[in-house]
Amino acid sequence: MRSPTSCCRAVRCGNSLLPTDNMQPACPFEPLDRLARFSWDWAPALCDTAHGCADYHRSWSLVRLLELGGALPAGQPFFTRELAEVARGSSRRVLVAGGADTGLTAMTIAAFRAQGSEPELVFVDRCRTTARQNELFAGHLRLPIDVQVCDAAAVDCAPVDAIVAHSFLHLLPHAKREEVIAAWSRVLKPGGRVVMSCAVSHAESDWVRAKDLAQVEQRRLGLQQRAGQAGFEPPVAAEIAATAARFWATSPGQAPALTQANLRASFARAGIEVRHIGLQGVEEVRGPLAITTRETSKRERAEVVAVRL
Ligand SMILES: C[S@@+](CC[C@H](N)C(=O)[O-])C[C@H]1O[C@@H](n2cnc3c(N)ncnc32)[C@H](O)[C@@H]1O
């Protein structure tokens, strides 16, 4: 078996590791084809079985590449707008808190490049697969990055000017959410901002996500077809689609559901003031959360800006 380091060299040398090299990701500087190959090959070894994340981390970059055209996480205009001031500043330290792959990091870098600058990145996730992908990605761009593989509440870094998060807080149990927000308060400079997107429910009791299994099956067949068209052998294309379908069929919700009220209260307890919550349609939520029933009436994607007092 190759080591993650040999894969790392392959990512850096610029070879496409997918069967065909005609897939153009939406973000031109994110080598998603090679990063997707890395997680497909290495997630079984790198993901911690106790976290149950292997199906997700193994297939997520491939789903982005093959099914979503390399799309970045939902909300790019919001992140670009709300990070602009930090991107124009003299100190540009950003903590990326939780990332299923390199998509959120790429979106953060794109927001800085829109202002003609580069961020100084800290990335935290408890999973080694996405952590390694982010190291490879930053190495490819020759950007400094401090990658921390630990619980998000244990992040420990020099003070940052901004924290970005996406589809993260609402997946944590309530007590863990509070710990993570307290950690954000510790590492954020006074006046520093949290810029995040996450699903908020109308009621704390609305945390169960009923999955539409017919829709999962339809999406599985579509992904299998696209993987085949991309040049994967039929058994591999079937395995990619089956892996993604397993995580689409899971329900990652936590009780109590994240609501605007409990989010504001948790931030306030940590000395962070929520300044803006903008609600977007839930159809804008991508990833493991997209396939659910009765979503539209009960949950929306919130774009949140909060400032450390
Ligand atoms: C749903 S994903 C983020 C999705 C986001 N839209 C994106 O594109 O990156 C959530 C991430 O949080 C990580 N995670 C979950 N619980 C964590 C914890 N307690 N500490 C650190 N990372 C955690 C998972 O490993 C996963 O990579």
Describe the structure concisely for a colleague:
The protein is α/β, with parallel strands linked by helices. The protein is built from eleven helices and seven strands.
Describe the fold and architecture.
This protein has 309 residues and is α/β, with parallel strands linked by helices. It has a domain of 189 residues: Vaccinia Virus protein VP39 (Rossmann fold), CATH 3.40.50.150. Helices cover 44% and strands 18% of the residues. The chain contains 11 helices and 7 strands. It has a 7-stranded mixed β-sheet with strand order 3-2-1-4-5-7-6, sandwiched between helices. Strand 1, helix 5 and strand 2 form a beta-alpha-beta unit. Helix 1 runs antiparallel to helix 2, helix 4 packs across helix 5 and helix 8 runs antiparallel to helix 9. The longest helix is centred in the last third of the chain and has 17 residues. It is globular and about 55 Å long. The structure holds S-adenosylmethionine. S-adenosylmethionine (SAM) binds next to helix 5. The site of S-adenosylmethionine has 20 residues, from helix 5.
Defining traits:
seven-stranded mixed sheet, Rossmann fold, SAM-dependent_MTases_sf, 11 helices, Methyltransf_25, disordered N terminus, 309 residues, alpha/beta, binds S-adenosylmethionine, globular
- Give the CATH H-level superfamily of the domain at 76-207 and 252-308: Vaccinia Virus protein VP39
What ligand molecules are bound, each kind once? S-adenosylmethionine
CATH class of the domain at 76-207 and 252-308: Alpha Beta
Oligomer description: single chain
- For the termini, the CA-CA separation is 50 Å
Could you estimate the helical fraction of the residues in percent? 40-55%
Structural class: alpha/beta
How many strand segments?
7
The helix/strand series, from N terminus to C terminus, equals HHHHEHEHEEHEHHHEHE
Rg for CA atoms: 19 Å
Largest sheet: 7 strands, mixed
The geometry reads as globular
Kindly report the average pLDDT value. Answer: 89
- Poorly predicted segments: 1-15, 284-296
Overall CATH architecture of the domain at 76-207 and 252-308: 3-Layer(aba) Sandwich
As a percent range, the share of strand residues is 15-25%
Total helical elements: 11
Domain Methyltransferase: 112-192
Keywords: Methyltransferase, Transferase
GO molecular function: methyltransferase activity
GO biological process, one term: methylation
